[in-house]
């Protein structure tokens, strides 16, 4: 074909030849990949040749992100990138269970995970029990012969209670039940789930791993190869593959993940101590502080990296909470976490709005409780903003 003929066809061009390669991963938005022959396509589907076919089944940008998170987690088999953290939760809860099975969840799981356990699984004939993940006896008491998996988070939202992961992992191993850890809050920087008995690890990549609040993705990987395969097949069938552009942005975020985590965590520790000195703050919850109810457990499990979240309680009700949020200038009042900028959330008007009042009280969730996801601001400047906002709440 001559150079001029090529211009009359729609897609005849490959990339121009280059002896060198791009330093940055190319973004590959292609949905379909062309193979040379039917034999070659057969070989790809059979696994004799590696190659992409249709992007719901996998694409290079997803694989690059998965490989980075696999390396951070020490995952034994390649992880799967899903279109959101809930996509990963769904792959585990629906892809690995059948009617008649029983599932145990921590009662402080992410709200949508709780909803799937209380609404969707029972509708499909899968029974669920929610228990305090800090109490291994409660987990043991909830076990049944049909229990298939136990799903927990290491540090709970928003009270930052620490789960008894070692106790639960020993129990899961003894009973042959899968232990699923949602490591979104703690991240592999603070907690290596596979080293602590996890069979399956989940992330909302949307949060700290991507870190810039411009990507929605999830991740799941498994210790056992057959389970890993089932999760992948289910995700492809359910259609939860993440978009190449989101994966491309997530890779960019991951390049600085460890630095961001360490910086935010050090600032969180400083902010927690600062908040505890302010008039008008009645409680500070940070697992790195000695006055946290799970400090010793956090010390043992999190190797001094605790987390990038601080929760505190303002003296007062909704009016003081509104005044605080208005006074926290330059910070986003937004129900998310893990952004490069500090965000503040108010559980009673967001994550815990549907929780019954008596349960709110039992959890210590009052109108004055705020959760801070600490970002990369200068620690002293950040503390100054909080001093000012707490003062604004006191004066109305
Ligand atoms: C946000 C979050 C999820 C859900 O992730 P999405 O990406 O929002 O779907 C699951 N678990 C935890 C702990 C989360 O914080």
Describe the structure.
With 396 residues, the protein is α/β, with parallel strands linked by helices. It folds into two domains: 38-254, Aspartate Aminotransferase, domain 2 (3-Layer(aba) Sandwich); 257-395, Aspartate Aminotransferase, domain 1 (Alpha-Beta Complex). The protein is 40% helix and 14% strand. It contains 15 helices and twelve strands. It has a seven-stranded mixed sheet with strand order 1-7-6-5-4-2-3, sandwiched between helices. Helix 8 links the parallel strand 5 and strand 6 (200-204). The longest helix is centred in the last third of the chain and has 20 residues, at 257-276. It is globular. The mean pLDDT is 95. Pyridoxal-5'-phosphate (PLP) binds at residues 84-86, 110, 153, 182, 184-185, 204, 206-207, 216, 218. Pyridoxal-5'-phosphate is lined by residues 84-86, 110, 153, 182, 184-185, 204, 206-207, 216, 218.
Pick out its properties.
single chain; 396 residues; alpha/beta; Aspartate Aminotransferase, domain 2; 2 domains; 15 helices; 12 strands; binds pyridoxal-5'-phosphate
Shape: globular
Specify Rg, calculated over alpha carbons: 23 Å
Low-confidence sequence ranges: none
Strand content: 5-15%
| Overall domain count | 2
Strand order of the largest sheet: 1-7-6-5-4-2-3
Bound molecule kinds, no repeats:
pyridoxal-5'-phosphate
Mean of residue pLDDT values? 95
CATH class of the largest domain: Alpha Beta
| Annotation, overall tally of beta strands | 12
């Amino acid at each position: 074909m001559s150079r001029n003929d090529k211009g009359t066809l729609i897609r005849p061009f490959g990339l121009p030849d280059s002896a060198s390669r791009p330093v940055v991963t190319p973004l590959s938005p292609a949905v379909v990949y062309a193979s040379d022959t039917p034999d070659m396509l057969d070989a790809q589907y059979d696994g004799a040749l590696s190659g992409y076919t249709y992007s719901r089944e996998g694409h290079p940008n997803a694989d690059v992100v998965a490989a980075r998170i696999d390396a951070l987690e020490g995952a034994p088999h390649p992880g799967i990138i899903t279109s959101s953290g809930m996509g990963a939760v769904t792959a585990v809860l629906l892809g690995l269970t059948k009617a008649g099975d029983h599932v145990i969840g921590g009662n402080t799981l992410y709200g949508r995970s709780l909803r799937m356990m209380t609404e969707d699984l029972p509708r499909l004939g899968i029974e669920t029990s929610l228990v305090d993940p800090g109490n291994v006896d409660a987990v043991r008491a909830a076990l049944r012969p049909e229990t298939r998996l136990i799903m927990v988070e290491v540090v709970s939202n928003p009270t930052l209670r620490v789960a008894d992961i070692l106790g639960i992992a020993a129990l899961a191993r003894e009973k042959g039940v899968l232990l699923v850890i949602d490591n979104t809050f703690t991240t592999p920087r603070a907690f290596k789930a596979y080293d602590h008995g996890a069979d399956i690890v989940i992330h909302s990549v949307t949060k700290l791993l991507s870190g810039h609040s411009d990507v929605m993705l999830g991740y799941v990987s498994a210790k056992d190869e057959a389970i890993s395969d089932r999760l992948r097949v289910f995700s492809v069938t359910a259609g939860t593959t993440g978009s190449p552009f989101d994966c491309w942005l997530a890779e960019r975020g991951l390049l600085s993940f460890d630095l961001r985590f360490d910086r935010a965590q050090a600032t969180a520790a400083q902010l927690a101590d600062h908040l505890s000195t302010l008039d008008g703050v009645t409680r500070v919850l940070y697992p790195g502080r000695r006055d946290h109810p799970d400090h010793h457990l956090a010390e043992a499990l999190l190797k001094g990296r605790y987390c990038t979240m601080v929760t505190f309680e303002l003296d007062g009700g909704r009016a003081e909470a509104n005044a605080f949020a208005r006074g926290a200038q330059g910070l986003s009042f937004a129900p998310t976490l893990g952004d490069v900028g500090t965000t503040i959330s108010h559980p009673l008007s967001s994550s815990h709005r549907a929780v019954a009042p008596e349960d709110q009280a039992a959890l210590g969730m009052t109108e004055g409780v705020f959760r801070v996801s600490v970002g990369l601001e200068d620690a002293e400047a950040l503390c100054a903003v909080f001093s000012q906002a707490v003062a604004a709440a006191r004066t109305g």
